């Protein structure tokens, strides 16, 4: 069921496909225009509408918070593009923190561009955590029936593996349960993916399952409906068929590959643990096709509708959580 609250939508990096997928998403779903507040460079967005031969009257029908800036060349890293992306996010967060719009949906940003513009944060999650002083923020993918929570995100694989500990698994299982509560799911069946092939094959292919992961799972069984570790080459498929409500992925690509193979254009990323729900597309800025009218808006459509679907439930959960601690 879709709620009635408005959604703040940031246009992302103006040199990427963010403005294009937002423009196409709104053109395909004009009924959403009065539910959206756009944050970004208005001139760049208008140029995008024109180059994609879309109805420019969209700008007269949607509320737009402009971030002025210099002309942006599509498809290349630019400090100015990073600055516009950062300021768009900051303005959107300020608005959402005041209660209207109620949730945030973000188009992709480019890590090199925002760093060039002076950002100390490598991605949306870190940036939003700091802007809202949020201590424990999780990233959850939703792809059809499959939900995935990531124990960590943008880390080199060697570092991500080194951070797998019994405590990190305990914390992540907690976040899985909290995520499902926040999304209002009927059941909360949690599956933990293994780190090594064949879940370590009894120690023949790695010791982490027996020494680190399984003890954490066993310690949480009395609190939650949690099981694992399961071989990663099958557990995501099983969850996509409805056997589990969420899978704990132990590193970035483990979960990303599963979700995107299932439904690349329909996967939505969510941040839970912020004072509001944040959704996003599951793809990047795609500089290689920026400005060419080739971008598929399906993930942006899904991200906007997911924000509308879950925002009211999420805010009710936050209020309930706060009241229980008082």
Brief rundown of the structure:
The protein has 326 residues and is of the alpha/beta class. The chain is 44% helix and 16% strand. The mean pLDDT is 95.
Topology of this structure?
Elements: E1 7-10, H1 18-28, E2 36-40, H2 42-51, H3 58-61, E3 63-66, H4 79-97, E4 103-106, H5 111-116, H6 124-131, E5 138-143, E6 146-150, H7 157-162, H8 166-183, E7 189-193, H9 208-220, E8 225-230, H10 232-240, E9 246-249, H11 252-263, E10 268-272, E11 278-281, H12 298-325
Parallel strand pairs: 1-2, 1-4, 2-3, 4-11, 6-9, 7-8, 7-9
Antiparallel strand pairs: 5-6, 5-10, 10-11
Helix pairs in contact: 1-2, 1-12, 8-9, 10-11
Notes on the protein architecture:
- This protein is 44% helix and 16% strand.
- It has 326 residues and is α/β, with parallel strands linked by helices.
- The protein has 2 domains: 1-137 and 273-326, Isopropylmalate Dehydrogenase (3-Layer(aba) Sandwich); 141-265, 3-Layer(aba) Sandwich (Isopropylmalate Dehydrogenase).
- Strands 3-2-1-4-11-10-5-6-9-7-8 form an 11-stranded mixed sheet, sandwiched between helices.
- A hairpin with a 2-residue loop joins β5 (138-143) and β6 (146-150).
- It is globular and about 60 Å long.
- The mean pLDDT is 95.
